[in-house]
Amino acid sequence: MRIVWRGCAVVIVALGQPKPACAQSYQDPPPVLTKATRDAAALIVKAELEQAGDGPGQLNTFWNGLVFYALADALPGVAGKPGIRDVSPYWYLGELKRNDKQLGSAAGASGSTSAVERPGLPMFLSLAIEHGAIEKSVSGTSVSLSTTPYAFLKLFERDSPSNFEKYGLWRRLGVSASLPLSDTSATASNLNLRGVSAWSVRVRAYGDHSTRSKEFARLWQQRIQPKIQKRLDALTRGLAQTFNSAKAFSAIKDSLRTITVDTIKIFLASHKDSADSTVTELANLILSALEKGIRLPITEDKLQVPDTVEAMVTNELVPALQATHRDLQGIDQEVNEIVDQVNRGPLLTIEYTNHRADSLSGRSEVQLLFQGRLAPLDIIANAGVDFYHHPDPVRNQSTVRSYEAAVTLQGVLSQGLFPMSASSGGIVLSASGRLSRVVELDDFIAIAQL
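User: That's the sequence. What structure does it adopt?
Assistant: Structure tokens below.
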């Protein structure tokens, strides 16, 4: 079999090699194809950089779907039936709320306006401040640097679901340090540890608010996965029925894939970065191949699609796919509701803080930090003890400096009393209190916020 597309197009010869083709971009691709192509390009570039030359092979994951979208776009369609341009792209993992915890300034630190501290640990997964493993935040006159040992394990082993479970202990630990504000430009290369005014260690003793927790996975499987699976089933059925019904077209698809992979290899040889422009250019290259190899030949009657396949695609497969994508349009809100629900689960953290610059006697504190929900209120509670390393009797100092406890209660007032989430609207009501007994002064200190 020999199929030749003339003009400014790719020439395909069965088991042959690609010939050069002049530049031509896909004219106004449907949104679902644009997003799928960019997803493919992003994965190819990422794999090429991280897996030493395995990038082009990632096209296989997306190829059948891309060809199906281009094929459906080339068909004339049927009045009253949704076409491929009516299939909206979906981002069911588009913008999850961040629920990684940063070990910021303590409630009593400079610049802090909080009467209580939230429990939790940071989840930063790169090396050095510049890459995110060490998070930097500014509060008042201090700078807080925070990280977790798991962030540095990524240097040696790739962050994956299996490694996430394997190194669960390291995910339970977090450390932070506070420095004067003059060190806001501190990086891993010029960080002056002598300027550290306080450092902390946290251990997550109970609970997990991450989107990899078992509770999040349970809710995901219960509420989100069925909708995603319905979409995958519709697409898989469409691909199987389309290409199994047209063996000749399937052969053309496979030949075009081989040519496109070779073209991607040439492109990646001169593009060794993950810049957005690189992903965009690669996506346009793939779209161009689909334009030249699929859409144009069909629209120009140089490639015939069997009537049975055309009827099946336009009357059954595309409408079914459009319906599943429509069901996914509101999924971001549902995912964020799950994140809110997980974040309301109980979380208990133990924290040790060493205040290096506080006094000549040296001072440390140990706290229990709790977060949970006591319906209809969210609650954050702290309890701790503050002690001297070298108490000075002349200053009336004993080993225990102070005891303290703090609590914050928060709810949302709207038509009903305290609905599940503040994001649903309404007035947020919050009350905080902190009570400390300073032993050396034999005095109580109370702070209240509303």
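The CA atoms of residues 394 and 440 lie 11 Å apart.
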